[in-house]
Each structure stands twice: as C-alpha cells, then as structure tokens.
Amino acid sequence: MKILYIYRHPNMGYSIGKVFRPIEEEMKKHAEVDSIYLPVPNYSLQGLWRNIRYARECCRKKKYDIVHITGTEHYLLPFLNRQKVVVTVHDFGSIVVHNPIKAFFKNLLFINTLKFADVVTCISDKTKDELHSLIRNIKQATTIYNPVGPEFKFKPKKFNIDNPIILHIGTKSNKNLENTIKALAGIKCHLRIIGELTPTQKENLQHCNIEYTNVWGLSDEDILKEYENCDIVNFPSLYEGFGMPIIEGQSVGCAVLTSNISPMKEVAADAAVLVNPTCPESIRKGYETLLSNPEKYIEKGLENIKRFTLSRISKEYLEIYNKIIRRL
Q1: For residues 108 and 99, what is the distance between their CA atoms, to the nearest angstrom?
Q2: N or C: which end of the chain has fewer CB within 10 A?
Q3: pLDDT digits (tens, 9 = 90+) for 44-64
Q4: Which tens digits make up the pLDDT trace of 166-219?
Q5: DSSP category for residue 142
Q6: Bridge partners (DSSP) listed for residue 270
Q7: Closest Cα partner for 327 from 65, 127, 51?
Q8: DSSP H helical ranges for the chain
Q9: CB 93 within 8 Å of CB 239
Q10: CB under 8 Å to 104, separation ≥6 — which residues?
Q11: Residue 215 is part of a domain; what is its CATH number?
Q12: Cβ proximity of 297 and 290 under 8 Å
C-alpha cells in the first residue's frame, strides 16, 4: 500500500501536523508513506490554485493507493478525483461566518467539497454531527479520535492538595478563562496560564486575587513540562473540535476538569470532573469535588487514555484504508 499525507502550509499552524505526524510514522510499519506540505499559506484565488496544482502534480508523479488530506484543505478534493481520498475534519468553527459572501465561498470550498471524499473521518462524534447538519445524506463519514502523542507518559508525583497548580492552556474567548477566574476566587491554588493575556483578563485576575503566572510562545517540549509540573488541567471550554488537553493531561497523571458539553464529555467520559462552562458556580463546585478526591480522577484518567493510544488510532485508519482499497 502507498499512502500520501497532505498537510497545510506550516505557517497556517502546526496543530494538525502535531496530531498526524505520529500517525504517519506509525503507518510506515504497514505501508510505503510519503507526505507533502502545501506551498501557499493563504486562501487567495492564486494561492488556492497553486496548492491545487502542486497536490495534483505530486499525485501524478507517483501512483498512490490512498491520498489523505489531514485537515482544512478540503478544496483539493474535486481536483483529486482520480485518487482514493480520505479527508479528516477537525471542526467547523472557522467555517461558520456571518458575512454572506464569505459564507458562500467557505461553503463552496470547505463544506460542499467533502462530498468528493471516499471517506470523511471526524475527530469526534460532535464534529460528525455538525457535518451531518451541514451536508444531509453524507454516508461516508466516520469518527476516528485524535491519538495522544507518545511523548505524553505517566510520571508519578504527589498531588499538591495545599496549593495545587492549575494549568489553563489558551486565552481566546472559547477557552473560557473569564469564568475560570470567577470560579477560583477564594480557592487556594496557583493558576498557570499559557497564552498572552488581555488587559481585561489581567484586571480580572487581580480583582479576584488569583495567584497566577503567565507564559506564551512555548515549544512542544515546554508545553509537555507544563503538564508534568501541574496538578490539574483546567479545560472548561465553550467550543472545541476535540480537546487535546484532556487526554494530554490525563496521560501524564493530572486530574482534569472540563465541560459537560460535546466533545469534551465525549473525550473525557467519566474520567474528569464535568461542569457547566457558562456557570462559574458550577466550575467552582467542580473544583470542590475534584479536590475532595483528586486521586480518583487521576486513576480514571489513566484508564481513559487507553482509548486514544497511537497504535489503536493508527489501526483504525489502516482499517479504513484497506476497506477503500478492497472496494476497487
């Protein structure tokens, strides 16, 4: 079997590559694997056409059994119609816009084109449900979760019950730092925030008398150390396609608090404290529950991550590839 993985330009973000590079390496145990990064990091008409031509040329030079678009570049699909193509959809958050002109083109390029895929894999049932709401009667969609990276390994440590370090990754509005700050007022802890804070967020932290430190621009190695050094991962997000901090935190032995909405509750199952992310009081009560028995959630988390191992997720992709090839 010969497989080609297609990645967006690195300047458009490394998150998808971070997920799929380990899958790509694992797949080399079973197949001949190549990968490419698209040459243009924007969605101008010229950029789209250059990326389309580049992808077509790569497929023309070498016959692949499977071409896998690892995310976002759905517009390539109609132009790879002589290939057997799998595309992975991570979320639709950036596609839903209110401007009617932008909405038309985003629907044309990133939603309607999904009909041309042999299989669409979604990283959560929540994303798959969104897909079905946008494209009726799409039959080739299935859920395959993201794997946790092999570098995230359990490291036993004593939980700091007197002054736990709570790790919060991301400061955009969907990461829900504002309600976290309100919930933690009066709870003895150290809030470790990854991501540049706004002036308003800093004011809120000071007003609620939260002990905190703040860093950003960290490497992957630095992020791993942050997980290893904390006691709790705080992830009461308002919107995600998946929720990697849940399983990354659980893998290294952290207790996790997250949202009781999809896909967070889907990923966490019963291995995290689930809260209403829009209600600071619910988040606060969640912390009271967690701090009453943190070891319970650490143990459950280590059991939960078995669903997201690299070998298991890669096997699921391999089964999809083989099914497509058998249909030839």
Answers
A1: 14
A2: C
A3: 999 999 999 999 999 999 999
A4: 999 999 999 999 999 999 999 999 999 999 999 999 999 999 999 999 999 999
A5: E
A6: none
A7: 65
A8: 15-27, 45-61, 100-106, 125-134, 177-184, 199-207, 220-229, 244-252, 264-268, 280-292, 294-304, 310-326
A9: yes
A10: none
A11: 3.40.50.2000
A12: yes
Amino acid 133 reads S
User: 280-292 and 177-184 helices cross at what angle (nearest 10)?
Assistant: 60
Contact 128, 141 (CB under 8 A): yes
Strand partners, 121: 88, 142
Q: Which two tokens stand for residue 314?
A: 């890669």
Check whether residue 9 and residue 140 sit in a common domain. Answer: yes
Angle between helix 220-229 and 244-252 (nearest 10): 60
Find, among 252, 257, 251, the residue nearest to 234 by Cα: 257
- Label residues 121-159 b or e (16+ Cβ within 10 Å = b): bbbbebbbebbeebeeeeeebebbbbbbbeebeeeeeeb
Task: Kindly state whether residues 240 and 321 are assigned to the same domain.
Answer: no
- 193 found inside a domain: yes
- Whether 171 is in a domain gets the answer yes
Which SS3 state, helix, strand or coil, does residue 115 take? helix
